[in-house]
Amino acid sequence: MLRVFLSKELTEIKRDKKLLFSTILLPFILLPLIGIILYASVSAQPPIIAVLNENPKNTPYVNLVTNYIRSNGG
Asked: How many separate domains does the chain show?
């Protein structure tokens, strides 16, 4: 039953070129394109890191961490 249904649908897709394009070829073109665009937009923005110092005694350590992050691309 399932085999008959699948073979019927596949022959229908083969006959109709618009259906073949919209169901099979278009997703294969658009999905990688969307992935490339999203990857490029995410990798172009550097991360934003906030350092919060709640204890004034820790200021030298906070300055060390902040300088380390800035020097290593953060």
From this structure: 1
Asked if residue 74 lies in contact with residue 59, where contact means CB atoms within 8 angstroms, the answer is no
> Which domain, by its residues, includes 48?
2-71
CB 13 within 8 A of CB 24: yes
DSSP 47: P
pLDDT of 32 strictly over 90: yes
User: Per the confidence metrics, is the pTM higher than 0.90?
Assistant: no
Q: How far apart are CA 8 and CA 2, in angstroms?
A: 10
User: How many CB atoms neighbour CB 19 within 10 A?
Assistant: 13
Quick one: pLDDT band at residue 30, thresholds 50, 70, 90? Answer: very high
